[in-house]
Amino acid sequence: MAVTGAVMVLFLVAHMIGNLKIFLGHDSFNEYAHALRTLGEPILPYRTLLTITEIVLVASVGLHMWAAISLSRRAAHARPVKYVAKKSQAGGYTTHIMRWGGVTIVLFVIYHLLDLTFGVVNPKGFDSEPADRMVAGFDPSRWWVTLIYAVAVVMVGLHLRHGIWSAFQTLGWAKRNRYHVLRVTAAAVSVVLVLGFLAPPLAITFGVVK
Amino acid sequence: MNLTLKVWRQSGPSDAGRMVTYRVEDVSPDMSFLEMLDVLNERLIVEGDEPIAFDHDCREGICGMCGMVINGVAHGEQRATTTCQLHMRHFEDGATITIEPWRAAPFPVVKDLVVDRSAFDRIIQAGGFVSVPAGSAPDAHSVPVRKEDADDAFDAATCIGCGACVAACPNGSASLFTAAKITHLGLLPQGQPERLSRAKAMVDQMDAEGFGGCTNTGECTAVCPKGIPLDAIAQMNSDYLKANAK
Ligand code: HEM
Ligand code: SF4
Ligand code: FES
Q1: Which are the contacts of A180, defined by CB distance < 8 A and separation ≥ 6?
Q2: Number of domains composing chain B
């Protein structure tokens, strides 16, 4: 969970920075999208690094889900008879939505790939410039798409608020006197990611970026 | 005080069990929770009913025998308190209180609120010891121990093995208990030689008993009557990862 989660967090940071390029104009964004594919050229063939990244990400998502499912199953086996009354004491809202949050995120990722990567559910289709797909996708008339993205991104933020902290604990790098710093860092990273991911779709829907 | 109790009754391991409602009257706020149950049990015996079975021994918060889930919280909502040290003054007159046993597959119900915690004993047997002649208490400072380590080891050593951590954990994990023992022994000089093999043996035993996996929810620390800190689990994970890397 911790290692695959960390891979995905690193990806999200890079992805967020890439998305923000839309604020520098269509060309900047398209160049960036193109650069992702030609990274490492001419030493490496076209799309080598991108394909490797994609494989690592798919493997991370798969292993992360596998770990989540086996944890849930072990939990179900460990408590076959449920409590009649059960009250949470740790007050961790985010810890209790990890599983459903994860499911929501994966459904969103599928939709997101169909929308902006493969263009299947995007008005511009597959044969278009990445920036055009993005701007058309979040057109004010498609406000509900922006809404889906916003909800999903907030879910990612909540998932990571617990997840980042939890990963340090899982890897044995957490110590009582560092808990506060770790929690604040986890929350800060989550907030930065949420804002960074929300900015482009909102800016497009509200006409700031055309 | 007059109270309504909803208590889990289960005649034996194979019985399905059910909640049964009882009225208890004239409870003194100075009574402990177990004394309140004693009052009810005396009445049940007089009336020819089966008394409610529950575990207890010292009744002073040090043996780890007592424990029940009270209103959905292991050992009740009073923090850092065992069930035997919980007093009725923390409840309101006329309140309805639900009482359930620890619920975890590795802690099968023996009867009513009594569960079999032998799984903890087997985790201890797997590695909760030191194989050096420890002898009688050594002179202070004959073996230097860092103050921080001594404090952390002592904090971890206060675990009384009650099992509330398992009861509270949404995953039914025994990580806090196991981590407390691993931290307690692993931080002291006598425990060093077996530090990694101990962590591996105890964690593997914990998994073999059918406890769930830790997802760092923190529910365990919140109900632990001894306030065993969550970073004991980080220490256990660190030792376990190192043991497996070898
Ligand atoms: C594919 C769908 C996903 C599912 C079903 C899922 C589910 C889970 C579950 C059940 C946990 C363990 C609960 C816990 O540690 O409290 C977890 C932890 C975590 N998740 Fe996810 N998640 C998903 C996607 C993601 C994504 C996209 C990221 C990162 C961008 C991520 C990052 C993390 C991290 C860092 C942890 C903590 C790891 C640890 O404590 O060892 N997850 N996830
Ligand atoms: S860690 Fe706390 S809750 Fe768990 S067995 Fe020890 S004393 Fe009880
Ligand atoms: S009876 Fe000994 S701790 Fe409660």
Answers
A1: none
A2: 2
